[in-house]
From TrEMBL:
GO terms for molecular function: NADPH binding; oxidoreductase activity, acting on NAD(P)H. It comes from the Bacteria. This is Enoyl reductase (ER) domain-containing protein. It comes from Streptomyces malaysiensis. Coiled coil: none annotated. Signal peptide: none annotated. Transmembrane segments: none annotated. Residues 7-310 form the Enoyl reductase (ER) domain. SMART domains: PKS_ER. It holds the Pfam family ADH_zinc_N_2.
Length: 313
């Protein structure tokens, strides 16, 4: 099969690779669409500790059909259409994933659209649920035009929140208004948001995280779920202590530690919102698998609005 590997130099190579064999509790998926995420950028740079390194295949989310399963996977039916979250190995025509990281793909929706929800919708739904975002609360989304951000904006609005987005241009702001944002803050100006918030979803972190932590209202919840702007320094967390009297909550969230049950519950909520028309995938661009390099560079640029997808066919 065709697969894309990361070389020691960080370059990507398209190679002929043996088809992976599922372990006892895994399934093999014949892939129709592959999600490209910022984690893949970090993996290729050697900045993601769980990526096995040179010679390995990146890619943490694929949509396709189950073609075989290990003996310990009950009820895996041949041809079942799924969203699978492999522990890397997704930039290929086939990949294996643990059966408890495989979710049903809804019928009648393109594979690219399902992967456009994928990991990003699971993160966005889970963080707003963990933060307990309630109707009428003010919610701020950082990195709103990104893969997670466009979905978090919609889900926060669907939960009845009054949503403010931080983004990098007026044009992105207009697109985010169409997805449910009530207010737009352009981060290319010097101004920070001038309100305070009950919930802040941060996919960016970086040097400005502390300034955003200061925007929490009393009893507010700050969810840190990404670092597209770089790792936050220890000083970023100082407002938690200096604003102790306001009872702030910091929630750090990674999909890696979500239980299989919580993963299924979150995905079921995502699909319900999709069916009800309160959530839709936002795709930026699709590339053939052989152009994975260009796809990864686009994600690295921070310019996509929504999701970048690879097509293995
Ligand atoms: N917690 C988890 O389980 C989990 C799962 C998947 C990914 N992640 C992480 O979440 C983060 C976002 O992922 P993503 O797929 O949404 O990435 P993405 O599509 O690249 O979006 C990130 C967005 O952040 C904004 N941004 C980028 N650089 C910035 C900077 N220097 N300062 C301020 N804003 C900046 C941009 O949005 P605007 O132009 O609109 O501001 C960009 O579109 C990544 O760090 C990724 O590794 C976490």
């Amino acid at each position: 099969m065709k697969a894309v590997v990361v070389r020691a130099s960080g370059e990507l190579d398209v190679v002929d690779a043996p088809e992976p064999a599922p372990g006892p509790d895994q399934v093999l998926v014949d892939i129709d669409a592959i999600g490209v995420g910022y984690v893949d950028v970090m993996a290729r740079r050697g900045e993601y500790p769980y990526f096995p390194g040179a010679g390995s295949v990146p890619g943490l989310e694929v949509v396709g059909r189950v073609t075989s399963a290990g003996p310990d996977v009950p009820g895996a039916s041949d041809g079942q259409r799924v969203l699978a979250l492999p522990s890397f190995g997704g930039y290929a025509e086939k990949a294996v994933a643990d059966a408890d990281r495989v979710l049903p793909a809804p019928p009648g929706i393109d594979a690219a659209d399902v992967v456009g929800l994928g990991v990003n919708a699971l993160v966005a739904e889970s963080v707003l649920d963990r933060a307990g975002a309630a109707p009428g609360e003010r919610v701020l989304i950082r990195g709103a035009g990104g893969g997670i951000g466009v979905l978090a904006t919609q889900i926060a609005a669907a939960r009845g929140g009054e949503v403010t987005v931080v983004t990098s241009s007026a044009a992105r702001g207009e697109r985010l208004r169409a997805l449910g944002a009530a207010r737009v803050v352009d981060r290319t100006g010097s101004a920070l948001p001038d309100e305070t918030y009950d919930v802040i979803v941060d996919t960016v972190a970086g040097p400005d995280m502390g300034k955003h932590l200061e925007l929490l209202r009393p009893n507010g919840r700050y969810v840190l779920c990404g670092a597209a702007g770089g790792a936050p320094g220890p000083e970023s967390f100082e407002p938690l202590l200096s604003r102790f009297h306001t009872s702030p909550t910091l929630i750090a969230f990674s999909l890696n530690s979500v239980t299989p049950e919580d993963l299924r519950t979150s995905w079921a909520r995502v699909l319900t919102m999709l069916e009800e028309g309160r959530l839709s995938p936002v795709l930026d661009r699709s590339f053939p698998l052989t152009e994975a390099e260009a796809a990864l560079r686009l994600v690295e640029s921070g310019k996509p609005f929504g999701k970048v997808v690879l097509n293995p066919r």
